[in-house]
Design brief:
Order of helices and strands: HHHH
Distance between the termini: 48 Å
Shape: elongated
Number of helices: 4
Strand content: under 5%
Number of strands: 0
Structural class: mainly alpha
């Protein structure tokens, strides 16, 4: 489904909800937005995450890559 169709369908569904359910949906939307904001603030650039993971690995990744290339030649 395209975004506009999803939005229209969601609005239609929301309009049919009783007031208490409407409040629940509103709280869910706020929670979702808050979770996304927290993830964006805490997110590290991917290369830093890779560096952190590779620090724990013994040896050298560049040496391993060189060795694999030599094996193919």
């Amino acid at each position: 489904m395209k975004t506009m169709r999803v939005r229209e369908q969601l609005i239609k569904e929301i309009q049919d909800l009783p007031p208490q359910d409407l409040m629940d949906v509103y709280e869910m939307v706020l929670d979702l937005k808050e979770q996304k904001n927290i993830r964006l603030k805490d997110a590290k650039p991917a290369f830093l995450e890779v560096q952190e993971i590779l620090k724990k690995c013994p040896g050298s990744l560049s040496d391993d890559i060189r060795q694999l290339r030599e094996d193919r030649i």
